Backbone:
């Protein structure tokens, strides 16, 4: 599957999600609903490569006209008298496949991002191991641990299966109201399973690390989840002015998250503070959670949009063309006859399309050419050569036979521009083509 096609499909998904979120923001809907849209988008990005292979495709086929451009000369080789030289394909002669380089580059980028995430989780795990466990009535009957650490830059939540709320050392001096507001915010992360959605966004970043739009979605998800958790705190009765004051003081005391940032949900990032304070104090904006019906609607809409995008198959079809590669210049679409080369030698040349996507061509010295194998092979005299060519669709086969001093011949056989061994199948192709070229030349000449 083309990397560019996957890039196009991912961009279409991101564009559709961006339009949907802009419409929701215009209607002043809740942050939870916008976060849900981005989460469904991330899930669609993760399953997009699988669906692109599994679903039957519908194709967009733009036609591009192209004419072959061939330059250069065939290599010169020497042979012992009386011997035939057959051109063989040289291992490693073809250019490296750019797809291998692209796959290697993608793997390197994905590995680097995964290593960065693993390092972040390891750092938080070590912090939790060294932290001091504490208790609080809000965490009673919950499978959530609460710890205090001097290494914690601010209040944050970490972990999917066994979530841990991590408080900074100064939390012991917080007022009961501030501690309650902070814990309600962090427990909202646990209830919303933000650790899971954040991991999905990180997986999408690793898979599409080359796409800036995916990184933008991951950043937006982090922002929307904080607004959604703020909404939950306000829904539990905390005063908006009081909560905004807590956020401001916590942001002032916060230290940089550094390696913890990609893996832990921090409460009061200074970079988001102004917008969050405006949202908390906005009395018009919706602070509701997303009802089950809305969740089903967003998921269903995402699947409906994902299906056609995943099935899209872009095929650039080159309009078939065939032009002569030998004979007198300029080459004409239909040309046969006798001409003289630069050295004055008389040459016989035939070039003619024989079907919708087939053409044949033959050029050889008029003097000194022998037909062998019952007229199915061309044996040029020493110092001369013969060329036969057939192009069918996208496959082009060319054979140049050179007469060498001492009676030997040299055959240079190429398929689509790549040297190939002149084996039994190539001989059978030649035995079929030579009679047709000779016969057409005689037919047209008459």
Residues:
């Amino acid at each position: 599957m083309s990397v560019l096609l996957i890039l196009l499909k991912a961009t279409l998904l991101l564009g559709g999600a961006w339009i949907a979120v802009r419409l929701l923001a215009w209607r002043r809907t809740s942050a939870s609903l916008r976060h849900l849209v981005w989460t469904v988008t991330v899930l669609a990005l993760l399953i997009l490569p699988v669906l692109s292979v599994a679903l039957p495709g519908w194709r967009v086929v733009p036609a591009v006209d192209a004419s072959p451009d061939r330059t250069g000369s065939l290599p010169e080789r020497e042979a012992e008298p009386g011997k035939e030289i057959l051109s063989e394909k040289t291992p490693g002669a073809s250019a490296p496949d750019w797809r291998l380089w692209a796959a290697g580059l993608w793997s390197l980028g994905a590995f680097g991002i995964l290593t960065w995430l693993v390092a972040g989780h390891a750092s938080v795990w070590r912090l939790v191991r060294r932290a001091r466990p504490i208790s609080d009535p809000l965490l009673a009957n919950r499978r959530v641990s609460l710890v205090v650490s001097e290494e914690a830059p601010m209040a944050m939540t970490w972990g999917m299966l066994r979530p841990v709320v991590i408080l900074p050392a100064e939390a012991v001096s917080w007022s009961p109201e501030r501690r309650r507001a902070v814990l309600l915010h962090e427990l909202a992360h646990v209830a919303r399973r933000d650790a899971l959605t954040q991991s999905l966004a990180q997986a999408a970043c690793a898979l599409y690390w080359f796409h800036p739009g995916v990184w933008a979605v991951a950043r937006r998800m982090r922002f929307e989840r904080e607004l959604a958790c703020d909404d939950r705190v306000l829904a539990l009765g905390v005063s908006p002015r009081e909560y905004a004051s807590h956020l401001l003081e916590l942001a002032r005391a916060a230290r940089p998250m550094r390696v913890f940032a990609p893996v832990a949900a921090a409460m009061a990032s200074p970079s988001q503070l102004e917008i969050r304070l405006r949202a908390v104090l906005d009395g018009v904006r919706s602070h509701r959670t997303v009802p089950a019906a809305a969740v089903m609607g967003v998921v269903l809409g995402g699947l409906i949009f994902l299906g056609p995008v995943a099935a899209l198959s872009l095929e650039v079809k080159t309009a078939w063309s065939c032009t002569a590669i030998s004979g007198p210049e300029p080459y004409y679409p239909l040309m046969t006859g006798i001409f003289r080369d630069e050295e004055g030698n008389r040459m016989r040349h035939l070039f003619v399309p024989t079907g919708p996507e087939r053409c044949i061509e033959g050029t050889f010295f008029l003097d000194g050419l022998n037909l062998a194998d019952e007229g199915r092979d061309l044996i040029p005299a020493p110092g001369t050569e013969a060329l036969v060519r057939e192009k069918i669709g996208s496959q082009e086969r060319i054979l140049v036979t050179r007469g060498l001093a001492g009676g030997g011949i040299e055959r240079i056989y190429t398929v689509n521009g790549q040297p190939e061994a002149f084996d039994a199948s190539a001989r059978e192709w030649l035995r079929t083509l030579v009679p047709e070229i000779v016969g057409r030349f005689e037919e047209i000449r008459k």
